[in-house]
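User: I would dearly like some help making sense of a protein record. This is the protein in question:
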Amino acid sequence: MRQVKNRNSLDILAAMLSASETASGKTHIMFGANLSYRLLERYLAEALRARLIAQTGQRSYGITGKGKAYLRKYMTYVVYRRALNNAEQNFQRAQSTLRKMCLEKTEGLSLTSAVSGNSKSRSRKQPRE
């Protein structure tokens, strides 16, 4: 079984909606969405209130048209979230590389001489008389 890490309420609702695409009982939804009974009760009440899921029988629930629209929007959200996470990782790598470059010592050059283009200092001491 796949380990799920730090899901938010949007992720949990999407998992519940996916599990209830066919008329399903609470147990089916609970296992399909990988939820405890306590979390199932909490999010099922929220989904019923939002009309994302409807009670289809005495003990069964099914996804509504609004719930299907939610799942479509959720898939777009997931694509954007992954792209944003990848961009953030690339940003952090670039930032780290730049910081390392600033800390590296250049061979025989000081920072000011490296910027000015000279490897030798311009201010030479005059010979003593």
In short: The beta strands are 53-55, 61-63.
